Amino acid sequence: MIDIASGHPAIDRYLNEGYESVRGMSSRFAAAICGHIIRRQSEMGIKGDIAEIGTFEGRFFIALALGLAAGENAVGFDLFDWPNERVLQRFIDHCARNGLEASRYIAWKANTRDISADALRARLNTGKARFFHIDGEHEHLPLSVDLELAHAVMHPQGIIALDDMLHPGYPTLIITVMDYLKRHPEMVVMCVVDREDIVAAAKFLICREDAAHLYEKDLMETFARFHYVVGADINGHFVLVLTPRPRLAEVGWDS
Ligand SMILES: C[S@@+](CC[C@H](N)C(=O)[O-])C[C@H]1O[C@@H](n2cnc3c(N)ncnc32)[C@H](O)[C@@H]1O
């Protein structure tokens, strides 16, 4: 197990004692980094709710929602029909077992293409999301719909996290993300959180360019052990890359 923590006691307890017991596909590495971001948002006075598309059994959702501050809530969307209808009850049970009170979240059984931004806003306690994880259908049109839904309800200093970026099984999703960035030039990929494994793939963390400074330096310093210093370039923005085992290829300058 990678030795990484969010610094938020409830989230770290869950990461250490509950995370692996909830079936799911997101990495613990990414959950710790996102948990840290949520803790830091609270410390910076960024107030907003938390949302996720594609909660499945709740593995990542619980980690995020345990970081809610007073007065905030979490909304989790899923069709809750895969691999069978019992998944909703499993989700509810996992939340309860891992200390997430029923009053803190809404499990919304819906197809996100049928959800308007106004309908979502009405169910967010503060009316805006400070952290939004998108992990629903991995196709061009559904991801575009999900990105626009999230975009419409975001806190100006909030973070959109996108799962399964650069995944070998979904290589064309990057086109959907580039289209989104073209439609919203105020947004940048602030950080790439690299994969742990083929089923715990990389995430992009997206925010407004004018909010990126709130996160970049802090992430670079807090997670210095995981910093791939070469970084990445997306649309001219220098993107922070965090990876479980950073290293550079050896180059034989003298040979
Ligand atoms: C890969 S799983 C999510 C894994 C979970 N986020 C985790 O980290 O463990 C994708 C989920 O998205 C849900 N989903 C797919 N398309 C959806 C849609 N249009 N609206 C709502 N949920 C959807 C599926 O039912 C499935 O449970």
List the defining traits of the structure above.
binds S-adenosylmethionine, alpha/beta, 255 residues, globular, Rossmann fold
Per-chain topology:
Blueprint: H1 9-17, H2 28-44, E1 49-53, H3 59-65, E2 74-78, H4 87-97, E3 105-109, H5 117-123, E4 129-134, H6 140-153, E5 154-165, H7 173-183, E6 187-193, E7 202-208, H8 216-222, E8 232-234, E9 237-242
Parallel strand pairs: 1-2, 1-4, 2-3, 4-5, 6-9
Antiparallel strand pairs: 5-7, 6-7, 8-9
Helix pairs in contact: 5-6, 6-7
The structure holds S-adenosylmethionine (SAM).
Structure explained in plain terms:
This protein is α/β, with parallel strands linked by helices. The protein has a single domain (9-242), classed as Rossmann fold (3-Layer(aba) Sandwich), CATH 3.40.50. The chain contains eight helices and nine strands. The chain has a nine-stranded mixed beta sheet with strand order 3-2-1-4-5-7-6-9-8, sandwiched between helices. α5 (117-123) crosses α6 (140-153). The termini are far apart. S-adenosylmethionine is lined by residues 24-26, 53-56, 59-60, 77-79, 82, 111-113, 135-137, 142.
